[in-house]
Design a protein that fits this description.
Elements: H1 3-6, E1 18-25, E2 39-46, E3 49-53, E4 56-60, E5 64-68, E6 74-78, E7 84-91, H2 93-99, E8 106-108, H3 117-133, H4 139-158, E9 159-161, H5 166-188, H6 195-201, H7 206-217, H8 221-239, H9 244-251, H10 256-267, H11 271-279
Antiparallel strand pairs: 1-7, 2-5, 2-7, 3-4, 3-6, 8-9
Length: about 280
């Protein structure tokens, strides 16, 4: 499961050219930083959100849209106790590439199409309502129509051709470096992985890695490693009957105490309490 989070492979339902995710609850997301080739459009209707895209942090509240371009390293998560309500539309890269072969030469920006924001939000709200209920007998046709309208708006009003500026080249350099770093962490998170080991792998000093990891990812190396382990552990907690100790060891935490401390920090309750509450729903 976790392998898909690092380089997230987006597989749209056969009936649609995009994956439509309806998100509700206190925790908008706890997926660690990841990337995928697909284009992602998120609409946070309610909730306080913290957004990281390629090392830049954005904080927003209700009624916020986000566009994540192909290959962007990103994370979107809630940071307060307010309930979140959001839609995430992940448009298939293969679908876009097949119909617009020059897609790799373009990127999308909300700044370019501000005058169309209300129209785009209205389409995303309609998608949310349609996929939340799925009561419309012809929801597949309606869903496709709405998704195509979103794609049309993106290309007509939010797209721009990439340039070869020094800034863009530097951004791409950092993106590629951190993709390799995240891949390495993802492959070794169950081991006693140290910051020194990762620094040696990517040819940096420990201090340089620590400084740039915090700057580019918005969190420390240790917090990111814990988030990877926690994501795996959460899945095991909900989908297996393994004991908390077994899950802690399998996830790379080393012992039950460190796992429970990390889990409580994120979910404000112990792993056992969380498992009991979810399974009793």
């Amino acid at each position: 499961m976790l392998e898909s989070y690092l380089h997230e492979k987006i597989v749209a339902e056969e009936m649609f050219p995009a994956q439509v995710n309806i998100i509700e609850g206190i925790h908008l997301s706890y997926v660690p930083h990841h990337w995928h080739r697909s284009v992602e459009v998120d609409y946070i209707m309610e909730g306080d959100t913290q957004i990281y895209i390629n090392g830049n942090e954005y904080v927003s509240s209700d009624d916020t849209m986000i566009i994540v371009n192909s290959g962007d390293i990103h994370r979107v998560r809630s940071f307060s106790g307010r309930k979140a309500k959001a839609l995430s539309l992940i448009i298939s890269y293969d679908f876009l590439k097949e119909r617009f072969p020059k897609i790799d030469q373009f990127q999308f920006s909300l700044i370019n199409g501000e005058e169309k924001n209300d129209e785009l939000k209205a389409l995303l709200r309609e998608l949310y309502n349609l996929f939340e209920e799925k009561t419309d007998l012809f929801y597949v046709w309606k869903g496709n129509a709405l998704i195509y309208q979103v794609i049309y708006l993106l290309f007509c009003h939010y797209s721009e051709e990439k340039t070869n500026s020094a800034y863009l080249n530097k951004t791409e350099k950092y993106k590629e470096r951190f993709k390799l770093i995240l891949k390495y962490i993802n492959e070794h998170y169950k081991e006693e992985l140290s910051q020194e080991e990762v620094a040696e792998f990517c040819g940096l000093s420990r201090e340089h890695l620590a400084r740039n990891f915090k700057k580019y990812m918005g969190i420390t190396f240790k917090d990111y490693l814990d988030s990877i382990r926690l994501d795996y552990a959460l899945s095991a907690l909900l989908n297996t009957d393994y004991s908390v100790l077994e899950i802690a060891l399998e996830s790379g935490f080393g012992n039950e105490k460190s796992f429970s401390r990390c889990f409580k920090k994120q979910y404000c309750m112990s792993p056992s309490q969380y498992r009991k509450i979810v399974k009793n729903k």
